Amino acid sequence: MIYARRLDRSLRFYRDLLGFSVISQGGDGYARLRSPTGTTSIALHIDPKLKRAKEGLRLYFEVKGLDALCRRMASAGVKFSQKPKDMEWGWRHAYLKDPDGHELSLYASHGRRLRPD
After folding, report:
1. Model pLDDT, residue 53
2. Distance between CA atoms of residues 99 and 53, nearest Å
3. Fewer Cβ in 10 A, N or C end of the chain?
4. For position 56, what pLDDT does the model report?
5. What does the chain look like in DSSP terms, one character per residue?
6. What are the structural domains of the chain?
7. Which residues on adjacent β-strands are paired with residue 50?
8. φ, ψ (nearest 5 deg) of residue 13
9. Per-residue confidence (pLDDT) for residue 111, from 0 to 100
10. In whole angstroms, how large is the CA radius of gyration of the chain?
11. Tens place of pLDDT for every residue, the chain, 117 residues?
């Protein structure tokens, strides 16, 4: 569940920019979305008392075509705190915030696993 101040703004970000598809949407300020290439889902829910994102939360989304996606998002006005960069642990990460200030990491693992089997 990701709490948001405005559902329309969060839907534009997660659906239109990140490619999630809406599974269900209620009139009570709730929407459930499925990831672009899998079965994982997230939920968006309006919290009118939300002043800013809660600290200590960062969502990670593994994406294909990281650089192209980030260029498309930047051309739509999204600001990145870090554009795609190869990290010392071998993954390529970009960092940004969603419309309500939640931290996101978009990353490409280059086929490497975080932990061995």
Report:
1. 66
2. 10
3. C
4. 63
5. -EEES-HHHHHIIIIIIT--EEEEEETTTEEEEE-SSSS-EEEEEE-TT--SPPTT-EEEEE-SSHHHHHHHHHHTT--EEEEEEE-TTS-EEEEEE-TT--EEEEEE-TT--SS--
6. 1-48 (3.10.180.10), 57-117 (3.10.180.10)
7. none
8. -70, -55
9. 58
10. 15
11. 898 888 999 999 999 999 999 999 988 889 999 999 888 899 998 887 777 666 667 888 989 899 999 999 999 999 999 999 999 888 899 999 999 889 999 999 875 544 443
Considering only CA atoms, which of 87, 109, 99 is closest in space to residue 17?
A: 99
Rounded-to-10 torsion of CA 3, 12, 78, 56: 10
The residues pairing with 2 across neighbouring beta strands, listed in sequence order, are 44
- Residue burial 1-16, b: 16+ Cβ < 10 Å; e: rest: ebbbbebeebbebbbe
Residues in the chain: 117
Q: Which residue has the tokens 């997660």?
A: 14
Tokens of 25: 């949407």
